[in-house]
Amino acid sequence: TMTIDNEKHIADVHVRSGLYSSDTIFDYSSGYIATRLFSRKACFILKIEKDYIPELEQIGRLAFERKTIKAIYSPHNLWVEYQSGHSFFNDVKDWFIYGRSIKDLCAGLPLYR
Fold first, then answer.
1. What is the pTM of this model?
2. What are the residue boundaries of the structural domains of the chain, listed by start?
3. Which residue, 39, 59, 65, 104, shows the most beta carbons closer than 10 Å to its own?
4. Where is the BRICHOS domain (predicted)?
């Protein structure tokens, strides 16, 4: 499921798939994306690159297209594969950079950038 908050410039994506469940926050106000993988008990953080990550309005449009048309081709679809590197436990200063919504998602977990 996806929830878009246009006032806060946040898209929240929940994937419920047993072992592969995850939550992802696209926080356009802070400029970061965070994905919490429940099976790994870790958070992965990615800087939003405007050339590769769609704008919030495009995400809403793509979600609507995907819902109404099951097999749609779009060059804006994005697939990300994470390769875990060195993790770090979050400092207080990191939460100022990433924003409150990502802090709420990832607090207490190792972070991977």
1. 0.63
2. 2-106
3. 59
4. 16-113
